Amino acid sequence: MTRDQVKTICNALPGAEWSEPFGPGHDVWKIGGKIFAAIGAKTPGISVKTPDIETAAMLIEAGVGVKAPYFHRSWVNLPFEAGEDELTHRIHRSYTLVRGSLTKKAQAALPAFDTQAND
After folding, report:
1. CA-wise closest residue to 68 among 96, 30, 19, 35
2. What's the CA gap between 29 and 7, in Å, rounded?
3. 117, pLDDT greater than 60
4. Half-sphere exposure (CA, 13 Å, Cβ side) for 95?
């Protein structure tokens, strides 16, 4: 998968907002003001949130990804070579987790999204 393909997936998620808060080349997608995916200017791959530290550790141990630099231990960095299905799943899962952590009011203000279909 390419950086542009990842951008297409992230940009298609309802209410996703793109920015470069850490400078040029640092692509960040947020939902409700909270980051759900990030691509660094030099670090290959995409960093995404997992449900917990244990899931992140399992993905790292299985060789699927590595610890996401500068993020909490529940985040992993997945290489673009991880495969389209895996990357799409992990991006959608991260989006769903972060969206679900927003207040009910913030969630209600967002466009509809079927979280069950994307888990």
Report:
1. 35
2. 9
3. no
4. 28
